Amino acid sequence: MSELRVATAGDDGTVGAAVEAVGGAVVPASEADALVTFGEDALVDTALADPEVPLLPVDAGPGNHSVPKQRVDEALDALASGEGWLEPHAIFSVAVGDERAARALLDVSLMTREPARISEYSVRAGAEEVDRFRADGVVVATPAGSAGYARAAGGSVVVPGGGLSVVPVAPFETMPDTWVLDADLTLVVKRDDSDVDLVADGRVVGSAPAGTPIEVARDGRVEFLRVPGVAATR
């Protein structure tokens, strides 16, 4: 880039100062070569708005492939020198029955509304039922979100372009299985001993009635910017 032109979202002043330090300019999103997001909420909100330029996440939490705040100047200097590369990430839609409920960048989960109340869940990949289990909930994480809540629950960290990490939350068994599935998924609450919330990217977006399929399907993509020599937040 001859001049680094970036837009920002959620900036506390750190990004703007770092852009100016490398001879760049903060501009409106319609004029930008990149969009720097500060924090996880800004990353999620910006990604789900289908930006036309790639995102550079800053301090966006574990698993979001983000630049630590204290190294923003290094990352922007690398971008200004043309050293960055693009990393595509899928965005997913979530539907309850025939009704679209949300989109998600990081993860989707079904969680019993009352703490420590177990429900029964079914996970299907395409036409195949992968498993049925009793647990407090189940989380489905994208590669961008797989090092967050899903990892804390015992799941795998998935490389960009990989499948979905599916993890039972507090399952009623001693050696639960987890999966990485490269297919659109269907989740179903098989028992309604307790109300079950539908959560997308950490926000409650509805409920999951017993017997109603919850479809998680690819619905677009967003590109992250990565730069050499700057460790991503994990």
TrEMBL record:
One family name in Pfam for this protein: NAD_kinase_C
Keyword Zinc-finger applies: no
GO molecular function per UniProt: NAD+ kinase activity
UniProt keyword list: Kinase, Transferase
GO BP terms in the entry: NAD+ metabolic process; NADP+ biosynthetic process
Record protein name field: NAD(+)/NADH kinase
Organism whose genome encodes this protein: Halorarum halophilum
